[in-house]
Design goal:
Elements lengths: L1 E7 L4 H15 L3 E9 L7 H7 L3 E5 L14 H9 L2 H18 L3 E5 L2 H10 L4 E4 L2
Parallel strand pairs: 1-2, 1-4, 2-3, 4-5
Length: 134
């Protein structure tokens, strides 16, 4: 089977889950045909992930949390307000994701908690099975 990963890139936990799962898939004879990561302006994609995933990574603009000055508390109101002004960028990200899906033709899209994943499934109704890991 051909898998496409859609990964929330805000933290590092989802990235390491994806690395582990990619290894399991490959050991079972499956193919990882694409990786799309929601990027955050606060953090860059770690080099260890790019090297170890073993396939080109596509980064897209994705909704992110807004936090207080010391990044300890999520500010829900500010998060909603800030992301509302980025809706056109998120729509472009969804369209880009759709192009990747059309080109790579996965059997399964595996979403590692990327918020765009649910929106993509809702608006684009991919033919591939859509799985989510939180």
């Amino acid at each position: 089977m051909r898998f496409l990963f859609l990964i929330q890139g805000e933290g590092r936990g989802h990235l390491t889950q994806a690395l582990s799962f990619a290894g399991i898939l490959r050991s079972e004879g499956h193919q990882l045909c694409g990786v799309v990561v929601g990027k955050s302006p606060r953090r860059s994609l770690p080099e260890f992930f790019v090297k170890k995933i073993g396939i080109e990574v596509t980064a897209v603009e994705s909704p992110n949390f807004e936090t207080d000055g010391i990044e300890k508390q999520i500010l829900l109101g500010k998060t909603i307000y800030t992301n509302l002004f980025k809706l056109s960028a998120f729509w472009r990200s969804l369209q880009h994701l759709h192009q990747v899906v059309k080109e790579r033709k996965p059997n399964v899209i595996l979403n590692f908690y990327e918020p765009l994943g649910g929106l993509y499934s809702l608006f684009f109704r991919p033919k591939a099975a859509f799985w989510t890991i939180g």
